[in-house]
Amino acid sequence: MKKKTRTPDGRKITDATVSMTKQVLDQIEQSIGRHPAETGGILGSSDGGRTIDHYYFDAAAHRTSSTYTPNIREINRIIADWNSRGILFMGMIHSHPKGCTKPSEGDLEYAKAIISNVDVNGKLYMPIVQVNTPPDGKIRLHSYTLETDVLVKEQKVQYLDDYRAEPKEPRLREKDLLSKNRFQRIERSLPMGVLKHKTIVGIGSGGAISFYENLARSGFPNFIIIDGDSVSDTNIATQEVYISDIGLNKAELVKRRILDINPKANVIAVPRFLNDNFEDSQFEELLGEKTLENPTNILICGCTDNHMPQARAANLALKYGTTYLGAQLYREGVAGEIYFSYPGVTNSCCPRCAMSARYDAYEAGYKNDVTSDGVSIQATQMLNAVKGEIAKMLLLYHEDKHCCYDTMLDDVSERNFVMIRMKPAASVVLNNQVFENVLSGSAEVCFAFETVWLPQKPNNEANGFKTCPLCGGTGDLKALKGKIKDSRNIA
Predict the structure, then answer these.
(1) Which of 216, 161, 182 lies closest to 23 in space, CA to CA?
(2) Kind and range of the H or E element at 139?
(3) Which residue stretches of the chain have pLDDT < 50?
(4) pLDDT at position 176, please?
(5) What CA–CA distance (Å, rounded) separates 253 from 241?
(6) Partner of 315 for a Cys bridge, out of 14, 26, 482, 487, CB 3.0 to 4.6 A?
(7) Contact 354, 477 (CB under 8 A)
(8) Does domain 186-480 have CATH number 3.80.30.20?
């Protein structure tokens, strides 16, 4: 017989047990556990409710130090996506201030409303998390379930030390999960002890899937992927996705792929677009206070085909003083570009200087009519390969003198705009002679697939340009840290 007690307000409390995968626990620790109370998310199960093996961190929630209000629109979208994949919504999880280890009266009323409106078989799991001060990723989980109007105290949470790359697939063996040999062959060039402190923030993930995957294969363990788009049928030919992926959110898909490479990785998937509804404070909460203490340990990557989120990503990097990489393919994939920056090192220009003509055009009302039509998967992969090497060059700068990437950035610090010619006709299609100018006299040995590193100067009158409204024509990225109050204001 279950032991019964009552809460101070007379609610019944009984004992029970719940099973949760260690993977979900790790994700909760790396999201809720690294933020001050109150933050939260939702929980799901792919085996009919026996095991909690899915988790989504509600990064867009409205929160204070004593309240957590879920972002209903985003939560509903995630639940709908889960339902389409046979994943059951199991409940809500959130943190409370120190000492408050039980659901509040407001929590219980909210849970009862969910039970009344959502098919959860009259049962909602609602654990309370306690985090350390300051948050360090370690948590204490107090487990409760509301069954209609009865609060069930979970006496024990059973953590299953397994990882499921996909629902209904065989579990990995424990020795595979804990393998110490996975990165053995790359440790000579990539210092694993350094990589564990690095975080890749990806804005956009469709064409960049292999970019993130290969950074995970290179030993980088920390990722935040932001993308509100879902895989469609037309993505099959131009992105590294499969028919079985159609309908999945792209950020969630990248998360699955990374965890299938390194089950110990810390991956936060944010299935929403970086638009004006995404406030800087919400982005800052995703990074966490501890991460922002060393901003050059963070690489923000703009990997969309839309100017506004690209410019917003660059502004975020400038605001917080992080490293930055932005990349795009041109019409029909004939060429691609990469801009990168490291505050205090690449002080030749800011993103606004390097792409001033583009900024000016959009400010004048230009509407982009370039799509992915005609882009080959090989062009996407080539751009991703160069991006990957530049990412390592930025994140490993002066980190380990025995690492081949240690001083690489010094050689190109003033040449931080890269163009890659994918097809011989690039100059004709783009009406741009940059490759002919750079490779002048090399026609007998050049044809296509060349990468050129173009020198940059800040936009000011002395250099023959209108003074940049973002950096003031100085190109000094360090001086911009903290100066941008709202990254949504694109200069």
Answers:
(1) 161
(2) strand 139-142
(3) 1-15, 162-171, 173-175
(4) 52
(5) 9
(6) 487
(7) no
(8) no
